[in-house]
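Following up on my earlier message about XIL. Here are the inputs again, as you asked, copied directly from the submission form:
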Amino acid sequence: MITRRQSLMMAGAGLVAGCATMPPRPEGPSLNALAARSGRRFGSAVGAGRPGTLTASFDNRAYRRLLEWECGVLVHENELKWYALRPDASTFTYEPADRIASFAAERGMGLRGHTLIWHHPQWFPAWTSSHDYGARPAAEVERLVVEHIDAIVDRYGMIDSWDVINEAVDADTGELRVTPFSERMGGPEAVMDLAFRRTRERAPMAQLVYNDYMSWEAGHEAHQNGVLRLLEGFRARGVPVDALGVQSHIGSGNSDNSVGFDTARETNWRRFLDEVVGMGYDLVITEFDVHDKNLPADFAQRDAAVAELGRRYLDLMLSYPQMGDILCWGLSDSHTWLQGRWYREDGLPKRPTPYDAQYRAKPLRQAIADALIAAPPRRSA
Ligand code: XIL
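Thanks, got it. Here's what our run produced:
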């Protein structure tokens, strides 16, 4: 159900009005071409949701043009999640995901896989709680997970990097989240270890990623520590995990009101990343956007602040040779998940992506380009 408020926001974001004319392409190389200079790919999420909604960027011709201009790799915004793909225990709804995969394949773009298990009870489909798990529930969970991984990984064999597990660590406590699967399988580790091992078997060449949203912001210490414990556990148990996916939903209004990135926080964040790479993990920026919830209303001021924070963040991340691909969670303000939640007090649409709702490049696009140009080379795999 789309509320009146949401439809007003969507109109303000240019979603309903659409855009008849496409602004000119930014001069110079694409973001993906710039990323390639240091051995990386640039890309974005794209959604094949219900036409006319925020999650339907793929439906929009102008948005698809942006993807063609800028991206070397795409990721499904929602279409591979259990709730989108599996309306019940025996049905798979592949069509929306297929459309995006074909688009990428036809253009020679790469594809990331998001996500085999979103290890967060809120995002499990309701049927996973009411399902008849029979006399041996652990075996039935194992059957469902293996069936899922085999089906999806085989169907989308072009996916070369998988978010095998998403968001397993409770951000408040640092403990592992309990899900309808984990409580029947003897704990979250059992589910995650199975998922990584099975994915490695089915896609031996793919990069396997644990993906989460821990950040440097005040209040994220428990989350960071929980992720480090989880990553240590993977290593201790010999679980095949190659990289940490740092979602990178940065900016104001996610978990606190901070828009800054001061030295103390930067030091703390580097310490976290140092520990991650010290365990032998690579890094991926999987869902970059810069939230502007609490920034000034004025577009020029807001866009400048978003660009400045984005640049600073990307410079830091790109200083790690273990840092690989960089994907935005949406390329245009016309289709960003942030438009549909955590509304600004002034009711104005948000501007957290590199292109505005009329598909004009914003200062954030230049900031990303500059960070990519300045990036030291990626460590060769
Ligand atoms: C979001 C989508 O953008 C929304 O359309 C959906 O309603 C909820 O999920 N972290 C993730 C992504 O790992 O899957 C989330 O995507 C954003 C936060």
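One observation from looking it over: The longest strand covers residues 282-292. Hope that helps, and feel free to reply on this thread.
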